[in-house]
Write the structure tokens for this entry.
Amino acid sequence: MRNTSTPRRNSRWSSSSRVAHEVRTTSTGSIVPIRDECQQDIEAFIPAALHHVVVTTTGPIHDLLRRDHDRLAALLDAACSGATIDVVAFHSFRGGLLRHIGMEEKILLPAVKRLRGGDPLPLARQMRLDHSALASLLVPTPTPAIVERLRALLEVHNAMEEGDGGVYAQCEQIAVECRDAVLKALHDAPPVKLAPYQDGPRAQASIERLLRSTGRN
């Protein structure tokens, strides 16, 4: 098992982070994020009458995804609990994060877009920018510097999703029968097939470009 050194920090995502985004890497090493593909089986359940309704309460969708954030945080903590990065534990975190992002990109965002009469969620663009940057950080072999950047971005990203009026709260606009369909799709989301790590200047250039695109310091 290969290990690399990493420092520890005391913050929600340093000692308990949260995340995810399914991507693929082309033969040239370029990072390709998930596309915004609506799922007709989910959209069919969402009544048009619910367009533009604003709700800021929590519910089962919020709770499910928040718990997954907590699970991912625990996995990252386990990977970085010692003086070195446990790459086997980090592998579990990596797969879990990519699956989580896929759940949001392929299920939640299309459903909310349908609820809004075809208008995307105002936070959808920022979500995707963050997701692409997070995914890029999962391409190379993990290092202490990569872990620190993951934690910093996850801290602000998950607050945006979980906060009052955030992404998850808006997803609770869905009627009970629609919510059940979305919850089932989230539960049934398959694991992501992970590509081998890719190191080198191209991967690093993609990280820097995608982190800049988030507009987050």
Observations:
- The first helix runs from residue 40 to 43.
